[in-house]
Write a structure and sequence with these properties.
Blueprint lengths: L5 E5 L3 H13 L3 E5 L2 H10 L3 E7 L7 H11 L7 E6 L4 H10 L3 E4 L4 H26 L3 H12 L3 H12 L3 H8 L1
Parallel strand pairs: 1-2, 1-3, 3-4, 4-5
Helix pairs in contact: 2-3, 3-4, 7-8
């Protein structure tokens, strides 16, 4: 895995795809281009380092909203990805659809490239944090996991006895013995 954020850039307009790819490369991103939604899915399957998808909404065969919904439903936190949608035909309806699809953000063309970079950096940070949180949880030492599992299965006798002990002035052992 590389230190630079990897962005999957999806747009069916080849000149625009190349222009954005160059700019993002100069801005410190690894960029994987895809000319349509099905190629984007192929790239996602092959490249686990992708943390952000920047996709156009209007494309033939599979639009960006469909692609976003598919990505958000099929990826868990271990492979967390944030989707940023872009369009030259922005409307309140398409923005609402982007929210329903689970998109991280919604950009209108023409875009201010510095704003695109800022959005992609925030999206990458969120995806990376989700991945890191899951990795930390997965790194629980086996002995600690065994102890926690045992403790969760053990009856909570001391907690059940505590009210009796406090009200009767009895010891924990006496209260626990009475409850069992």
């Amino acid at each position: 895995m590389t230190d630079l954020p990897t962005v999957l850039l999806v747009d069916d307009e080849a000149p625009l795809l190349a222009e954005i790819q160059d700019f993002l490369g100069w801005s410190g991103f690894n960029v994987v281009p895809a000319i349509d939604g099905s190629r984007a899915l192929d790239e996602l399957a092959a490249r686990k380092e992708i943390t952000v998808v920047l996709t156009d909404i209007r494309m033939p065969f599979m639009g960006g909203l469909t692609l976003a919904a598919h990505i958000m439903k099929s990826r868990g936190d271990a492979e967390a990805i944030e989707v940023v949608l872009m369009t030259g035909h922005a409307s309140a309806a398409s923005a609402a659809e982007a929210v329903r699809a689970g998109a991280f953000d919604f950009l209108r063309k023409p875009m201010v490239l510095s704003e695109v970079v800022a959005v992609l950096q925030r999206a990458h940070a969120k995806a990376a944090a989700r991945r890191a949180a899951l990795n930390l949880a997965g790194d629980t030492p086996p002995e600690l996991a065994r102890i926690l599992s045992h403790e969760l299965r053990t009856p909570l006798i001391p907690l059940l006895a505590l009210p009796d002990m406090l009200s009767d002035g009895k010891t924990l052992a006496a209260g626990a013995a009475r409850r069992v």
